[in-house]
């Protein structure tokens, strides 16, 4: 084959791949965000065929969150080393974890929670927390489950909200390098809920103070982790996910961070609903949700709680 024929063949393959995906300038396209590499590239999967593409943007800040769907109007489309790339404007973003075509994590049945055996949860007298536990005890026996994880990030067993990756930023390590380490887990398994928790924690600690326009980015990371869990739990789950089963902890951390975000944003009733849900999932309450509920019910604002 002559040099000109080889060049023509390459051009044909490029054209066919781009045509197959249907990504064209000025035609909106939906993408599942899998990995925000840095300030200029986002690794995505094209919906509905799930083929990888790279969105190149020209912004100097990161608004996008792994696990969301973005709608982009391309301005330029090309192929580089077998990967379709394009630039353009993001028109909208939404959360639809079903579009990622993930396999639900296994849910393993454990023992039964029996209120008569767990009666010590009610302190009696003037205990301020009994009002949260009485409905739980009256509801009756429920099954306990463990939501099985595929990856262990090495987060300490007693960790509730903070984590060693967030601490690395405070210890002086470059923020982008910490993000990169965490995202390695998402490459291995996008269902790694602790990775979404850590990304949320990193944003929670700095986004409001340094990047006011990214205030809700932490909340969005936690919400992605919650939606991954719901692939296994469904939208309505009446049983228990106790903290004592270690693989439940990533989901409980997602809920905890999400509840704090809502409280910080002034969404009081929504925040209370999250912490009440956590008590029903884990009545032993190693994360201290009952204390959060008391603070919120007393009218305490997040800033006051955070200052204590």
Question: How would you summarize what this structure contains?
Answer:
The strands form two sheets. A five-stranded mixed beta barrel has the order 1-2-3-5-4. A two-stranded antiparallel sheet has the order 6-7.
Walk me through the structure.
This protein is an alpha+beta fold and 308 residues long. It has two domains: 3-100, Nucleic acid-binding proteins (OB fold (Dihydrolipoamide Acetyltransferase, E2P)), CATH 2.40.50.140; 107-307, Serine Threonine Protein Phosphatase 5, Tetratricopeptide repeat (Alpha Horseshoe), CATH 1.25.40. 42% of the residues lie in helices and 19% in strands. It is built from ten helices and seven strands. A five-stranded mixed β-barrel has the order 1-2-3-5-4. Strands 6-7 form a two-stranded antiparallel ribbon. A hairpin with a 2-residue loop joins strand 4 (69-80) and strand 5 (83-94). Helix 5 (193-210) runs antiparallel to helix 6 (217-233) and helix 8 runs antiparallel to helix 9 (289-297). The N and C termini lie far apart (75 Å).
């Amino acid at each position: 084959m002559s040099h000109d024929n080889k060049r023509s063949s390459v051009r044909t393959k490029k054209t066919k791949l781009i045509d197959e995906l249907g990504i064209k300038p000025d035609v909106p396209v939906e993408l599942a965000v899998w990995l925000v590499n840095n300030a200029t590239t986002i690794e995505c999967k094209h919906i509905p065929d799930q083929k990888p593409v790279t969105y190149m943007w020209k912004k100097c800040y990161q608004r996008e969150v792994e696990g969301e769907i973005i709608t982009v109007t391309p301005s330029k489309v090309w192929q580089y080393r077998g990967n379709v790339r394009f630039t353009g404007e993001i028109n909208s973003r939404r959360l639809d974890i079903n579009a990622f075509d993930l396999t639900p994590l296994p849910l393993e049945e454990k023992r039964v929670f029996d209120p008569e055996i767990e009666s010590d949860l009610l302190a009696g007298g003037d205990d301020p927390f009994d009002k949260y536990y009485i409905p739980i005890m009256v509801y009756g026996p429920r099954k306990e489950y463990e939501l099985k994880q595929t990856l262990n990030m090495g987060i300490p067993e007693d960790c509730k909200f903070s984590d060693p990756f967030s601490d690395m930023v405070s210890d002086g390590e470059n923020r982008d390098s910490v993000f990169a380490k965490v995202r390695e887990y998402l490459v291995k398994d996008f269902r790694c809920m602790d990775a979404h928790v850590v990304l949320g924690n990193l944003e929670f600690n700095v986004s409001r103070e340094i990047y006011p326009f990214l205030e809700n980015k932490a909340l969005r990371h936690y919400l992605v982790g919650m939606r991954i869990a719901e692939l296994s739990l469904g939208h309505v789950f009446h049983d228990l996910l106790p903290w004592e089963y270690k693989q439940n902890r990533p989901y409980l951390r997602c809920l905890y961070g999400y509840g704090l975000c809502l409280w910080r944003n002034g969404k009081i009733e929504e925040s209370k609903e999250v912490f009440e849900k956590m008590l029903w999932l884990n009545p032993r309450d190693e994360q201290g949700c009952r204390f959060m509920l008391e603070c919120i019910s007393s009218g305490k604002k997040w800033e006051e709680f955070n200052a204590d």
